[in-house]
Amino acid sequence: MNTIVDTPESLKAGTYQQAVTDACGQIAPNWPLDRLIAVNPWWTLRNRTMPETAALLGALSGTRMLMPADYFGERRQKEIQSRHLQQAARLLSLDVNESDLLDHLRQKTSPRRWMNVTSWMDRLQEIAHRMSWQDETVHQISQTCAMVFQTAERNVQNQTSTPDLYHTWLETIQHDSGLEILMGEQGLLDILKTLPRDHNTLIDFALHDLAASSRHVPEYLHALLLDINGWASWVAYQEWQQQLQGNAHYSLMPQLLAVRLAWEWVLWRHCALNHRELQPRLRDYWNEQWQTLPTLIAGYAEQQRLRWCWQLANELAYGESLCTKLRKSPPVPRHTPVQLQAVFCIDVRSEPMRAALEAQSDAIQTKGFAGFFGLPIAVNEPGSDCYEPNLPGLLAPQIQVSHSALNAANLARQRNRQARLSTMSDGPASTFSLVESLGLGYALKLARDTFFPPRIDRPGRLQPPRTGWLLERAGTPLSAEDTAEMLSRILRAIGLTSHFAPTVLLVGHGSTTRNNAHAAGLNCGACGGQSGLTNAQILADLLNTPILREQLAELGIAIPENTQFVAALHNTVTDDIDYPKNLLPTSLTTWLTEACKLARRRRAPALGLKPMDDARLHRALERRARDWSELRPEWGLANNAAFIVAPRSATRHLDLQGRSFLHDYDWREDPNSAVLEQIMTAPMVVTQWINMQYYASVVDNLHYGSGNKMLHNVVGGHIGVFEGNGGDLRIGLPMQSLHDGQSWRHEPLRLQVYIAAPESAIFAIYQRHETIKNLVDNQWLMLFGWQPESGQISQLFLDHWRNVE
Q: Which residues are involved in binding Zn(2+) (predicted)?
């Protein structure tokens, strides 16, 4: 058997093209480890309601979008009260009482789900003493993907040509003589050698045999991609990046789909040729399943119907508590001259630090803004040929930034040495010689790092700010006028156009950890997984430039001569704020020092640290940052639950427990709602991605999280991780970022957005943007209008406002 099967007469090329396109568009992207940002893994399904999505994915792959019954049973004893259950049932139009809801938690039945051919073969055959077809399929595809994408990443940067995934897989699998031995199946290789050379042809041929009905082909193909969702997410990232660069025709997902579908078709034909006793049963089960797919989905919807009531009740309990806080009137403000203005990222970890800093003096004012400080940039660091995007993953860089540093040559040599060492360690043969020659040295280094780890730089040791940044757009230097226009937009979005303090601190944030594959995920997501320091330094330098200040004055923003912008870095592990020495007066450094002490004391219980004096606590946190064996250096954005868009004066008096993203906004300074529209279409979407990543990683860590951090092996240097030595590429967060060994540290709640603005302005933006409307109306987030003066809070849903009592 060495020729492909004959083309069926009834088959036309491209018969299933639309079904392939639909299925390939259902997978959300996942960013690489060195640019790791939070992503909503269900982003591409936002045109469905969240309950509909849960039923569909449950039926297709057994994934979960809700916590198990035991979780809600525990919450019923604490946060969830009868009134929350009654209100949730009323909002969902459910004719049930509390007894019905409690009975639901005691039910243990699970609905039947869709099974691909690989799973049916596992069920029909005895697999107790060999690897299952499902596991072998995923493992073999995963190893091929790792080989293809690792090579592509190493050889070609910013490539626009599509990797030849299907052909590489075909060449690999057709020469894998050990496959038949491993699986104990003769004749398998002969079938593999008949597969078409073109992936589109394979899709048409395979579906001609496998698709029992044209009606559910997109769902079947979606189920296949969900089997390898990790690699599908990586492919979706490749396509996302190419589309940001304007390459709309780049398409790689159909090749991955063809590889997975090929395994289905091969096993279908293998069963017909070599297991004829099983073929009638397989065919009957398969055809029956195609007819009953809507019933399978409906079964999951019914099984989850009351569980969604519990989920909403839990969210109402949190919302009730938050609304009570938001309705508290702020104290009468004291008219103290502002000495320090500090602009922080909206990250939930910034809120406790802002509160601690404000507690030092009424002369301190803090503001919340996206951590990339509005700079749509990609940065070329001295000594590097690469431009790293320092902005949210939703956006494409518009401006390239470089710097002609005096030590660029030294940095280049250092980076080249590191690159050569990395290349040597990746080579199949040189790996062993490298270990032999450097093994003892690395053993000594490991001992040193274990018992005498390098120290963390203390505040005041931040390098002096660099100046002379070169900003270019498409190779043309940005003019002073264009730069000033950009700065004007940024300052207006921050809400900083007048009444400047003598010192304006631009506080980026970053995390210091060691031996942590997901380290970038603890950095600033708005900066593409980088530290926010570079963006803060660039913005501070530009705002301190006299000629740009002159241009800003012509645009209506007059910055006093004595106002100085200073970049700083908030280390979210140690809760230090680092700044350049001698740039701040003593009074300000004292405030910063005391604020950091207060923030550390308040955070210590969440890290399981016992009460201790400030110096010992600081050393304990530094140890967490330096310890290569520390699994939980910090909790990141765990337990995030709300996004509050309002003047800081409306929330400064509140303890928000580090659960809220805080974005400063004053609608009175935004007459045409342009800034509000920007907030609702960018930062609100980013916070929803963060919220959903944590939510998904908790409710189903097997499919949407990365499992046990102790078992991680990095793939391709930065592509992602395997849990162990194989299986699918893992996405999402590891368990150690979500669970402390005894209880969950993140409560999976949908994001609640509170905007202090007229309802008419919020409603108009909601109506104009389909994405926002989908997120709100399809229950992916909750959107509230808040009037701080009156305390009125209303929820927007399905074109109507509902008063929140």
A: 345, 347, 509, 524
